[in-house]
């Protein structure tokens, strides 16, 4: 694994840079649209829906383009387009410009993140540990991006877009220099010993039922997880706690993710992936049960601990399992993973707000989220029974 990490470090740094840019933009969207551009919440919601839809579309198209054309050329085109979009946003971020820049940003970022995941799938083959390693760097980008907001954002987006330009400029240099190393004549540079040790003995493709269950699990899990990123902030304030507590929870989330993923990168094995996915879903379900009864800071951090462990175990497990049993067209399948994940993130806040408004309240919403994840556990067990019997 260490040898493989040395070979693919440019890909890991690319994941960090692209996700840093992504993480510095997304949390500001609602604040800037509503507070600074004075758009109504309904209008802001439609813009966010368009952004999320383009993110889903970009993720899927990025995978297809990566399979059909030279990966280096596709990645370079996406990075140049991201630089152009950031330059436009640097000077045109008013009520008309910012929504356009945001929607294009969603489309291009979805494509680039899928391309990075696709290369990870090609490089790792059946070695799921590389997904865990990539996820560490992606979450490090999350920490860097969200931490940069408080320093850079002071009623102006120019410092934010300047950071985006730095990230995309460095990413372009890395891509231009190292893309050929990551894809030599279309074949990944991998660690042969790790590949042989983790290669599945049954080379049959993943059944449609199992693939469908895994993709549906992504929509439902991210739909519930999105409550933490939206409605839980209001729930915490209703408990009489400050917004800073909510901020500290996410700092804790980012740091704990890196620690847990560091451990997972060492112990994750192909045969244990179905159980890894199930265990992660159980932990996420338990986090909502804890959250529904939490009224003090200690309970909130306990719930976040379960959520983070579940996320760290489940999220890299799904693409790794799909990659191990789908031979060829890695871009297509990893594009589906990113697209279904983005769909859940887009629908989650809308569904959560509707449930709260239908007299379920926050406690009812959290219990529904717990039940949804518990139901997904049953679906995954039924849909992955062939793999569980061999584990």
TrEMBL record:
Membrane topology listed for this record: Multi-pass membrane protein
Location of the protein in the cell: Cell membrane
Claim: Coiled coil is one of the keywords in the record: no
Broad class of where this protein is predominantly found: membrane
Database matches in SUPFAM superfamilies: MFS general substrate transporter (SSF103473)
A molecular function GO annotation: transmembrane transporter activity
GO CC terms of this entry: plasma membrane
Annotated TM spans: 39-62, 74-92, 98-121, 133-153, 159-175, 209-228, 234-260, 272-291, 297-315, 336-356, 362-382
Keyword vocabulary terms for this entry: Cell membrane, Membrane, Transmembrane, Transmembrane helix, Transport
InterPro entries: MFS, MFS_dom, MFS_trans_sf, MFS_Transporters
Major facilitator superfamily (MFS) profile domain ranges (all copies): 7-386
Protein name: MFS transporter
Organism encoding this protein: Levilactobacillus suantsaii
